[in-house]
Amino acid sequence: MSETPSRRDLSDRHVLIPGGTGGVGEGAVRAYLAAGADVVVPTRTQERGDEFRALLGAAATERLHLVVHDYTSFAGAEALVATAVDRLGSVDDVVAPIGGWWWGKPLWEIDEADWQGAFVDLATTHMAVVRAALPRMTRQGAYTIVVGESAHVPVPGSGLVSMEQTALHMMHQVLTAELADAKRVFLLELGPVRTRLTEAHDPQQVTADQVGAVAAAASASTVAGQHLRLPDGRAAAEVLARLRED
């Protein structure tokens, strides 16, 4: 059952979701569309965009804007944000479930390709999107960074993932300090997430729909940006209830 907001309280909002076609990102896309927002989702190819639209089914209304864009560089992210602004007139909110999993080697055995792909490329993409989008976002919106618990729980063989996720934690802290009350930045820290891509289905795990619902509720609220921990489904439901009370 979807956990997305029941009322269309974001009907005037324009939302950018890089990473929206992934398992976690799908939950965010569904939640913002259900709340009435216009949602821009970049895809690598037109074919992938068509597949994602078909996956969403009836949820893929005319308010879903799929654009073919590479946003992994500073120039690419600038072009993506410019496209979103040109198409919708503004960008209010950004949700960034950007990332991937890397596993297989202790740190002393990694090679340059591992380092580039699992740390440098992902950190650069997050930095590029923040740099391009945050200055152009409207005051009412929120920027939401999505990370996993691996940021502070070391996983042998996946150290590069933990290091990159820890860097995003600090990104959130620095942005919060630099912005003061000018704009809101949230950090969603997730435990294992049940998505369409996961094989195991632990009923205690947070779901992609819950992650999306929390992100949308944070956008719709007036609370200051903060670090929101969603280690499991129960915690996600509690955070969602607090946000909706605002």
Across the major sheet, the strand order is 3-2-1-4-5-6-9
End-to-end C-alpha gap: 24 Å
Q: Using DSSP, what is the number of strands?
A: 9
Structural class: alpha/beta
- The CATH H-level homologous superfamily: NAD(P)-binding Rossmann-like Domain
Characterize the biggest β-sheet.
7 strands, parallel
Second-tier CATH architecture: 3-Layer(aba) Sandwich
- This entry's quaternary arrangement is single chain
Total individual domains: 1
At the first level of CATH, the class is: Alpha Beta
The SSE string, one letter per element, is: EHEHEHEHEHEEEHEH
What is the percent of helical residues?
40-55%
Radius of gyration: 17 Å
Report the mean per-residue pLDDT as an integer.
92
CATH fold node name: Rossmann fold
β-strand amount: 15-25%
What is the number of helices?
A: 7
The coarse overall form would be: globular
Can you describe this structure?
The chain is an alpha/beta fold and 246 residues long. The chain has a single domain, classed as NAD(P)-binding Rossmann-like Domain (Rossmann fold, 3-Layer(aba) Sandwich), CATH 3.40.50. 43% of the residues lie in helices and 16% in strands. The chain contains seven helices and nine strands; from the N terminus they run βαβαβαβαβαβββαβα. A seven-stranded parallel sheet has the order 3-2-1-4-5-6-9, sandwiched between helices. Strands 7-8 form a two-stranded parallel sheet. Helix 4 runs parallel beside helix 5 and helix 6 runs parallel beside helix 7. It is globular.
